[in-house]
Amino acid sequence: MKTFHAKRLFPVMNGLGEGPLWHPVENKLYWTDILTGTLYRADPSMGNFEKRFFDLQIGAFAFRKDTGLVLATNRGFYELNNDTGDLNLLWITPLKYKGERLNDGKVDPAGRFWAGSMDPQNKRGALFRLDPDGSKHTMLTDIGISNGLGWSPDRKTMYYTDSFDYTIYEFDYDLRTGSIANQRPLILLPKNEKEIVPDGLCVDQNGNIWSAQWNGWQVVKYDPEGTPTATIEVPAQRVTSCCFGGENLDTLYITTSRADLSEEELEDQPYAGDVFYCQVDEKGQPTNLFG
Questions:
Q1: What is the average pLDDT value for the chain, to the nearest integer?
Q2: Which of 165, 199, 204, 274 is catalytic?
Q3: Sequence-distant (≥ 6) Cβ neighbours of residue 215 within 8 angstroms
């Protein structure tokens, strides 16, 4: 199995770095630190970045086709005017307990924004879909920790992670209607004392699934049948998500977390919470836009 090695891009020490996403028009990398309500945007040279703070926990976000963003937060879905910073509430999703929030999310090939909530105690989370026409859909219920989403290049399969189940599921996906069916486990990690679980993911142009592994110090590449074929070693334990970007879409950008690590653990991994990158041997699919 081939092994790659990630390099540190930005020393940001995010509490819970998440949701890296490459803007296909701006050619810029965005990501969020959920715990601090911070949205980051790197410049095209990848030499620096800017950040914007919100009184919200941003679990995921999407780029609109025209301008601005849509945010999936601890209070629901919001539209962000990128120029003024104004927020417009789009959907108060039914969050069932104090502290629950929307977590990971992604736009599908038809421009719909999917994002899920998390309830690791009672599995009362859900997967929601917000359509460009404003219609709102609850797609799945009884979710523990809603996480990585992606679609196959032929647009017939959707991948979805419930970290609580240690599982990446696949579904039959209908591009025209946005419906999903025939849920079945594709990748199931063993439950043991290491507590390595699948987190965020992305899918490349050949249909391979790149899954960030929380507590695993790595991103793992799986073929469409779920067989691991490569790993990217990351010098941080809690790897949260990844996306393809760069001029040729052949660079994988990786976010990490330093949440709940002890002082001793942080001494052993001083790069925890930083953003990393790795040149790989595949190309990603272009980022889907909402709208």
A1: 96
A2: 199
A3: 194, 195, 196, 197, 237, 238
Q: Which of 150, 157, 123 is nearest to 241 (CA)?
A: 150
Q: Where are the alpha helices (DSSP H) in the chain?
A: 263-268
Task: Give φ, ψ of 20 to 5 degrees.
Answer: -60, 140
pLDDT digits (tens, 9 = 90+) for 228-249: 999 999 999 999 999 999 999 9
Q: Is 131 a catalytic residue?
A: no
**Checking DSSP bridges between strand 218-222 and strand 228-233, what pairing results, if any?**
antiparallel
d(CA 234, CA 276): 8
Q: Other C-beta atoms within 10 Å of 194: how many?
A: 12
State the first-to-last Cα distance of the chain, in angstroms, to the nearest integer: 39
Distance CA 172, CA 256 (A): 30
Q: Is the pTM of this model over 0.85?
A: yes
Query: What is the SS3 assignment for 274?
Result: coil
As a whole number of angstroms, the distance between CA 109 and CA 155 comes to 7
CA-closest candidate to residue 91, choices 72, 105, 65: 72
Of 37, 52, 42, nearest in space to 277 by CA: 42
